[in-house]
Design brief:
alpha/beta; Rossmann fold; globular
Length: 120
């Protein structure tokens, strides 16, 4: 599975990459912003976008809304990652047609299983 991970925090990008690539069946490409993600998705559509909610510039929900408005990107699954995981926040994110919402801090050892479970 090819995953594009979008997060403004370099340490989190590194941990996610290590955690998801441990099993050998996943390749993670990381970018620090929603703007960079749009360029990367347009160049090579990933199998999944793992998307931070709160980022400077374009937020995760704003990026997902842009993806939903583009026929070529609409069908790419998105899983949000957020530290603000209140029930109403999760409901708002799921209303954007997300596959799921992962809470930060996450367990790196369980991340791959959690992502695969949300992908069905």
């Amino acid at each position: 599975m090819n995953i594009l991970h979008v997060d403004d925090e370099p340490d989190i990008r590194e941990i996610v990459k290590l955690a998801l690539e441990m099993g050998g069946d996943t390749i993670v490409d990381s970018v620090p912003s929603g703007e960079a993600a749009l360029d990367r998705i347009a160049a090579a559509a990933p199998d999944l976008v793992l998307l931070d909610v709160m980022m400077p510039g374009m937020s995760g929900p704003e990026l997902k809304t842009r993806m939903n408005g583009c026929a070529a990107m609409r069908s790419i699954p998105v899983i949000f990652m957020t530290a603000a995981a209140r029930a109403e926040t999760k409901a708002e994110l799921m209303a954007l047609d997300a596959r799921g919402v992962l809470e930060k801090p996450f367990d790196p050892m369980a991340l791959s299983a959690d992502v695969h479970a949300m992908m069905g």
